[in-house]
Amino acid sequence: MNSDIKLVFAGGRVEGLFLRDLLMDNNIGSIVKDALQSSVQAGWVDGLPEDTIRIFVEDEYFDKAKSLIEEYFANRDKKDD
Question: What is d(CA 62, CA 70) in angstroms, rounded to the nearest whole number?
């Protein structure tokens, strides 16, 4: 197993959690760093930055994960038109 990880998404919490589930549904494990949740657990909240959630995947799954995320955004943007 390759231990290198790469960032595939940084953004809002709701969309980030959805993308985490999308990756899981496609058999891609991920590491989620949630700044909001971390700050709440620490006992303080410091606003909501645009990149509240960061999702990382192992290097070997990066291309597939990036493709799934790009496809999601392409389809989401089409629905907005």
Answer: 12
